[in-house]
Amino acid sequence: MNRLLDRMQRFSVPKVKLLSEYWNEQDVILIAYGDNIRQTDAKPLATLYEFSLLHLKDCINSIHVLPYFPFSSDDGFAVIDYKTVDPQLGDWRDIERLAQDFSLMTDLVINHVSRENLWFIDYLSHKKPACDYFIEMPGNTDVSSVVRPRSTPVLVPAHTHQGVRHVWATFGEDQIDVNFANPDVLFEFIDILLLYIEKGSRFIRLDAVAFLWKKLDTRCINLRETHEVVKLLRDIVDLIAPGTVLITETNVPNGENLSYFGNSDEAHMVYQFTLPPLLLHAMYHGNSHYLTRWAKDMPRPQKNCTYLNFIASHDGIGLRPAEGILPEQEVTALVDAMHEYGGYVSTRTGLDGRPAPYEINIALFDALKGTSLGLDQWQIQRFICAHTIMISLQGIPAIYINSLIATANDYHGVEQSGKTRSINRHKWEYNELMDLLNNPHSPNAIIFHELKRLLGIRRRQAAFHPDSAQETLSANPALFSFWRTSTDHRQRVLVVSNITPQRQTMTLPNHPRPEGSGLWRDLIERTAINKNTTELILYPYQTAWLEALD
């Protein structure tokens, strides 16, 4: 506690860019591991900085560097030392340099630590204070009511100086949960949070926060005490570092996920975890029914809150967020299709004791190489269409680096790691990547340059401000369409996407400015549509951004 008070007294945020607003249409986030791109003569963080500065500065202003600390497993999410940069990636100077030219997102891996973390080593030898940082229970404790994302045991053995003990491990035996019922644990993580802000982090991602609090005979997920911790962290960042954005990462059903907004007093931003499985389902079937119904039901975010939109990340495509939205038979069909496209499916143990599909592990580029009609020639167009929809939705878009460069399934990575998530965690050699991106005929280059172009257009439209209103339309299920209206009502953009491999026609709605010219301008194609035109023709997987002109 005394150490925390000392840090708070010394706290300063010289590297955080304090903004007049939390976010705007300029905000686009790149998701990347510190070593996604490698060079033999440079540290990976320096290479990521170089690549981003040279090739992405005109279309992306923020970078989520996935855990860049020493770790023992799970590609960074089993943290050994929260306050040190992994020397194989670089050092704090590399992180601070990234934060000078880009808004930085940092993971606060708040639910668990590595077995090799000094706290856990002190627990094993019964040293204060860390010997009280973990949740110890008899190995035969009934934990059948606990909701988990894995099929491994909840309680795992630990060989301490006092004999074998069993400790809580939500995610596996190398990721040991900490005990937030001990206020010293809370103080430790507040201290870490302040360090990350001091080092320049604008966005703080609370990893796996839904599992934070444990209470026997409950589901041990989304408990009231967990929400109280998030509220406290929100109060701290709003008070000490205004403009810092707190993000909850809760891969849970839609309603539970949205609960982390609280009453505009918890997360500033929540991940749109329901979007990836619903959009993948819509593209696979060429039918937007479930996607449209979900989008129409989504509440407008509260003040100073918004969504983080994504369709691919370092993890797989979660299926729990589709619960209650996609019927079980639709989920099963989607899982079977992704198996056919070379993907894997991880399972968890349900409350009934049976395995249930939890996550599809596949590179998004391969996930979109066909439809329910079979493989076709539209993979590139379908992939671009999916991203165009994502970056059009209300909120801030986040693009995974391996999607931005159209990376295919990495079976070699799976073989090396023995982990199915590695299929979508490919590491690129810098020169190999640049050869592909400089080849105008490679799918990688085609997608990379088109997504950059679209992001550049998007960032100039007030209608795509995260706070701008969204109104979803019910139309032909072969289309997905919605309005975006700027906060000052000066710009209205109709987003229309053809999610099928066939040409589609849409009857244009009444022009929202009948007293004006009645013209439409397609921001993507840079063409005007005559006011007498009543129908819009969309080619396979084409998206139109139709701006209503005065």
Automatic annotation (TrEMBL):
Q: Does the keyword field hold Secreted?
A: no
List the Pfam families. Answer: Alpha-amylase
Q: Which SMART domains match?
A: Aamy
Domain of life of the organism encoding this protein = Bacteria
| One MF annotation (Gene Ontology) recorded for this entry | glycosyltransferase activity
The alphabetical list of record keywords is: Glycosyltransferase, Transferase
**Which stretches make up the Glycosyl hydrolase family 13 catalytic domain?**
27-394
Q: Which residues bind substrate?
A: D74, H112, R205, L206, D207, H314, D315, R421
- One of the GO biological process terms: carbohydrate metabolic process
Q: What is this protein called?
A: Alpha-amylase
